[in-house]
Amino acid sequence: MNSMLRSARTLATTASRSSILRRGYSSESVPDRKVAILGAAGGIGQPLSLLMKLNPLVSNLALYDIANTPGVAADVSHINTRSEVTGYFGDDQLGKALEGADVVIIPAGVPRKPGMTRDDLFNINAGIVKGLCEAIAKYCPHALINMISNPVNSTVPIAAEVFKKAGTYDEKRLFGVTTLDVVRAKTFYAGKARVPVAGVNVPVVGGHAGVTILPLFSQATPKANVSEEEIVALTKRTQDGGTEVVEAKAGKGSATLSMAYAGALFADACLKGLNGVPDVVECTFVQSNVTDLPFFASKVRLGKNGVDEVLGLGPLSDFEKEGLEKLKPELLSSIEKGIKFANK
Ligand SMILES: NC(=O)C1=CN([C@@H]2O[C@H](COP(=O)(O)OP(=O)(O)OC[C@H]3O[C@@H](n4cnc5c(N)ncnc54)[C@H](O)[C@@H]3O)[C@@H](O)[C@H]2O)C=CC1
Ligand SMILES: O=C([O-])CC(=O)C(=O)O
């Protein structure tokens, strides 16, 4: 029995060491990193907590929600990986959850039901995000913020305004998580192009709602014979990916599992950037000069201070150029709605 336990333990240690080595570190050089998840007991929060517990770059995992986090934290904490896990709940414990955090992931807020747009969530989620960002400004002003709560096109500008008011705003540290759009675009493209999905790359730019989601299939790799008609259909399916899940769940919420996967990928990229791993590039919604809009999702190189460089759009097809012009009014109005809310 003892030898069985010993070999299981050796396996776990070897797995964690080799995954650290795969990420470009020597096993001695991985710094301590605290990740806080706000909304950790929710549909996204729980599987995201699990995935972050599996990430060997995390040394301290703080799980915060308005309720139910002690159970989630107790459960996840039994997994024999590197991080210490602590559950926090209620306003009184928010400061402790945030103190010392390097990355704060925010999936707090209500999800859509069939028939709703992401903007229909604004009235509830804007207030939730504002309150959480006020606490972040106070307790961990230098953390990288990964905003998942919808409508992302407005919640990111809200966060920026809250941080500006608190005097802590650093545009390099605020990210709207649009990774799920990229994950979907890759999956749908691989299916149509009949290529192995593991090698597929597709940038997705713009924002995170309906037509503001603009996948750039003209830049997809590997190149494949995909017709114009199929590109139009792939674009529409990527833009409607969230709605597809909302309708399939029929009133029981929106994407949680694929979102947890996407959120874990993006947080991992942020941690790698912080740790100095070179050439970490992800699409994300950030303060931007790439277009005339103040916030825009595009490829971003991540570094030790968050955003290292916001990369340009690259060459667009005529269909994508048209999509870009079409998305601007809606994206701008969502950004302005967020700014107005934060300053009222
Ligand atoms: N960026 C993206 O690609 C995606 C964003 N989302 C968004 O993520 C959000 C969460 O979705 P789900 O996890 O499915 O919802 P959910 O309702 O299952 O979970 C939300 C959690 O937030 C918690 N919460 C509410 N107020 C809070 C506060 N003040 N502080 C801390 N926690 C608080 C709730 O207690 C709940 O546990 C929604 O706004 C949804 O639209 C969902 C999928 C993809
Ligand atoms: O569609 C929703 O409401 C949730 C979301 O943002 C997504 O799945 O992309």
Secondary structure layout:
Blueprint: H1 2-22, E1 34-38, H2 45-53, E2 60-65, H3 69-77, E3 84-89, H4 91-98, E4 103-106, H5 122-139, E5 144-147, H6 152-166, E6 174-176, H7 179-193, E7 204-206, E8 213-215, H8 228-239, H9 241-249, H10 257-274, E9 280-287, E10 295-303, E11 306-310, H11 318-342
Parallel strand pairs: 1-2, 1-4, 2-3, 4-5, 5-6
Antiparallel strand pairs: 7-8, 9-10, 10-11
Helix pairs in contact: 2-3, 2-10, 4-5, 5-6, 6-11, 7-8
This protein binds 1,4-dihydronicotinamide adenine dinucleotide and oxaloacetate ion (OAA).
Distinctive features:
16% strand, disordered N terminus, binds oxaloacetate ion, three-stranded antiparallel beta sheet, six-stranded parallel beta sheet
Question: What does this entry look like structurally?
Answer:
The protein has 344 residues and is of the alpha/beta class. 46% of the residues lie in helices and 16% in strands. The chain is built from eleven helices and eleven strands. The protein has a six-stranded parallel beta sheet with strand order 3-2-1-4-5-6, with helices on both faces. A three-stranded antiparallel beta sheet has the order 9-10-11. α2 links the parallel β1 and β2. The protein starts with a helix and ends with a helix. The model is unreliable at 1-15 (pLDDT under 50). Oxaloacetate ion binds at residues 111-112, 118, 150, 180, 241-243, 245-246, 254-255. Oxaloacetate ion binds next to α9. Homodimer. One of its GO terms (cellular component) is mitochondrial matrix. Keywords: Mitochondrion, NAD, Oxidoreductase, Transit peptide, Tricarboxylic acid cycle. This is Malate dehydrogenase.
